[in-house]
């Protein structure tokens, strides 16, 4: 029982960090930080802090023969992160988060297409609920953003689903924390190179943007990644996935308090359908892959 309590607590801490990401990113973008430098520094700081945790705790490293696969996973994760942040730059944080949170259902669909996983009646119901919720949310919310922004978020959902399905086989049997550190290091390198080619890594040298970048690297990258992995070890992936469902609620609350985002009645209905679909899916009794975040 003590491990379950501790596990739920650390997963909740991870959800707070992930949930705050969209709001912190919107604040940093408003301070003049460009999308690619913001992402590059996020993963540079995040990977450095996770590696510090690996070395400080003496965690085992992934075998050299598996590093190439982890690097390729990191490159795919970079594409997902860039699409998400570019979409977030064009949309309210609440709308972007609700569309993005359909990724568990998209993962189920892609797993069926890619690796032939069975589509149970529960999974079909979850797909129907999240799809209807996404349609309502976007239908009532495009006026507050634009179609390109929604399209970028949807593309990030597809890329993340592909990442999860692919990573299930790649990460199996590998030490989770150091393997994750390797993946996000590759992510940092890909995004940093892209930023250098397209304009550089410079950010405004003022207290507010620097503090926001540091907060994103620490509180919305390194801490939640590590906390979520530790939580999985204590309570298992199914309980951890269900507990992490509070993440969009964190984002919506912070977006309303900090950014003044407001959802319409139709969007609230869409949000409830998305959450219902995700919870229904995650209550299924089966081994689940580790969730990832942008």
Based on the model shown, name its key terms.
294 residues, mainly alpha, 11 helices, globular
Give a description of the structure.
The chain has 294 residues and is mainly alpha-helical. The chain has one domain. Helix content is 79%, strand content 0%. It contains eleven helices and no strands.
Q: Total strand count, please?
A: 0
* Fraction in helix: over 70%
Query: Which residues form runs of ≥5 with pLDDT under 50?
Result: none
Principal-axis shape equals globular
The radius of gyration computed from the alpha-carbon positions, rounded to a whole number of angstroms, is 18 Å
What would you call the structural class?
mainly alpha
Largest sheet: none
Approximately how much beta-strand content do the residues carry?
under 5%
Mean pLDDT across residues: 84
Helix and strand element order = HHHHHHHHHHH
- The figure for the number of domains is 1
> How large is the count of helical segments?
11
Report, as a whole number of angstroms, the end-to-end distance.
31 Å
Q: Topology, pairings included?
A:
Layout: H1 2-30, H2 35-57, H3 67-88, H4 93-100, H5 103-115, H6 121-141, H7 147-170, H8 176-198, H9 207-243, H10 247-259, H11 265-282
Helix pairs in contact: 1-9, 1-10, 2-8, 2-9, 3-7, 3-8, 4-10, 5-6, 5-7, 6-11
């Amino acid at each position: 029982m003590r491990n379950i309590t501790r596990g739920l607590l650390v997963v909740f801490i991870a959800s707070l960090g992930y949930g705050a990401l969209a709001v912190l990113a919107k604040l940093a973008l408003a301070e003049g930080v460009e999308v690619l430098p913001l992402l590059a520094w996020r993963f540079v700081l995040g990977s450095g802090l996770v590696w510090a945790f690996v070395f400080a705790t003496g965690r085992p490293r992934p075998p050299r023969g598996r590093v190439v696969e982890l690097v390729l996973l990191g490159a795919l994760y970079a594409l997902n992160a860039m699409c998400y942040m570019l979409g977030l730059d064009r949309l309210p944080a609440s709308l972007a988060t609700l569309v993005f949170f359909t990724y568990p259902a998209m993962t189920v669909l892609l797993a069926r297409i890619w690796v032939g996983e069975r589509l149970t009646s529960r999974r079909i119901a979850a797909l129907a609920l999240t799809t209807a919720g996404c349609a309502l949310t976007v239908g009532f919310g495009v006026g507050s953003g634009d179609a390109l922004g929604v399209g970028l978020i949807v593309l990030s959902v597809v890329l993340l689903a592909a990442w999860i399905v692919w990573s299930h086989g790649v990460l199996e049997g590998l030490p989770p924390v150091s393997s994750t550190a390797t993946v996000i290091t590759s992510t940092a390198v890909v995004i940093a190179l892209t930023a250098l080619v397209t304009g550089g890594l410079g950010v405004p040298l003022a207290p507010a943007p620097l503090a926001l970048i540091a907060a994103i690297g620490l509180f919305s990258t390194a801490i939640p990644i590590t906390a979520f992995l530790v939580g999985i070890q204590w309570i298992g992936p199914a309980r951890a996935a269900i507990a992490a469902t509070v993440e969009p609620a964190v984002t919506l609350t912070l977006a309303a308090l900090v950014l003044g985002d407001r959802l319409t009645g139709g969007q609230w209905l869409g949000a409830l359908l998305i959450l219902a679909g995700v919870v229904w899916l995650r209550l299924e009794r089966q081994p689940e892959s580790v969730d990832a975040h942008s």
